[in-house]
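Lecture notes, unit on binding sites. The following record was shown on slide 14. It pairs a sequence with 1-O-phosphono-alpha-D-glucopyranose.
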Amino acid sequence: MSLKIRVAVFPVAGRGTRFLPATKAFPKEMFPIVDKPLIQYAVEEAVAAGAEKLIFVTCASKSVIEDHFDSDSELERELRESGKIELLASVKEIVPSTVACIYIQQEIPLGLGHAVLCARPAVGDEPFFVHLVDDLIYSQTPCLEQMRRCYEYHGSSVLAVEAVLADQTADYGIIATEEEGLGLSRVISIVEKPNPEDAPSNLAVVGRYVLTPTIFDKLSATDRGVNNEIQLTDAIANLIVDEPVYALLFEGLRYDCGNKLGYLKASIEYGLRHPDLSEAFTAYLAGLNKES
Ligand code: G1P
């Protein structure tokens, strides 16, 4: 099988109920962190790791995501004519012209495993990334690039993991591993959203996966699990019976932008790092601290 990962899948059909009413008519994936929507950070990370085909598993009410990645000749003409060259570059560079975007509708909300299975015809018989847009990761080497390197070394599926507090296991897929060293270990079991007393460890899968296409047969054979949804975790539990699966303790800071506090933290910290804003925003926050 090819060791080059050319495909990335973005499951973006979720309703974002934790952000209602903001998400009533607007997808959470389009929420900005400073000046770029979350989905654009996700796409940039996947493209930087070598993805040439981007598959968005979406739903009818989210056509604005498609609009964001389409070219807009009217806007480009206006920016060119008014000499706003940097802004023009920023809209033209949203996705390189060599990268293909494919949109697949997830007709019924049957969970993450079902969303990934919907992408099967567009992925084909190739390894692929799955990127969950809610998990924004800030790192020197982008997380998917760290995972691509592991995949090219081992030729097996890779899950990004981090340690979470014991009382948070019911929010994540949780793994048990065999030690391998250098942050990489072989997964020996995985379970979706266990209560703390049933969790095999506190190592949680975050929203980055490299999967071999074998996962599709496993997903086809997966019954509904937690929340009455088809869980990717359950299919991975089956995959490890046939193939090695590795867990990577990635380097980086993760922001869970699927909840309000995580989203606010990301906005503040990306604002503090932003070259145009850093100085003024740092001063503003220091002033707030003095007032309180
Ligand atoms: C999904 C997965 C879960 C994983 C998590 C990472 O859960 O089902 O295994 O740990 O993403 O963010 P969700 O956050 O969609 O409930």
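Take-home: The pocket of 1-O-phosphono-alpha-D-glucopyranose is lined by residues 112, 132, 135, 172-173, 192, 204-207, 231-233 (CB under 6 Å).
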